[in-house]
Amino acid sequence: MDNCIFCKIAKGEIPSNKVYEDDDLLVFHDxxxxxxxxxxxxxxKHIPSLNGLMEEDQALAGKLLVKVxxxxxxxxxxxxxRLVVNCGEDGLQxxxxxxxxxxxxxxxxxxxx
Length: 113
Ligand code: AMP
Ligand code: ZN
Known about the structure:
The protein is an alpha+beta fold. Helices cover 20% and strands 22% of the residues. The protein has helices spanning 5-10, 58-74, and strands at residues 18-21, 25-29, 37-43, 81-84, 100-104. A five-stranded antiparallel beta sheet has the order 1-2-3-5-4, with helices on one face. A hairpin with a 3-residue loop joins β1 (18-21) and β2 (25-29). The longest helix has 17 residues, at 58-74.
């Protein structure tokens, strides 16, 4: 996607504060952190949202989830964390490239503000 900000980050066309990267995914710090640790995990492939995941993306989707604990360990989130995936208008998704928010280093109250 030409005009997608997270595709540009994945390609290195826009700078980001990277935490982890491999062939399929990238993790970087959120620009407006909502917790002392707040990173975004994205597939490098442009998938607009959770609703855009297709049968052929099963391995990629599984890889994203399995990687979360590794990233959490890297970030020192041994006390736990929250994983958030906003989807669509009511989910208040603002960037239309699938991303997982990993938040931690504070008590993640519920419901979120
Ligand atoms: P969402 O509301 O779930 O779509 O989340 C989008 C997130 O992307 C927000 O938390 C923004 O702060 C974050 N964000 C937007 N642009 C950037 C950027 N260039 N680098 C890092 N985080 C960003
Ligand atoms: Zn994209």
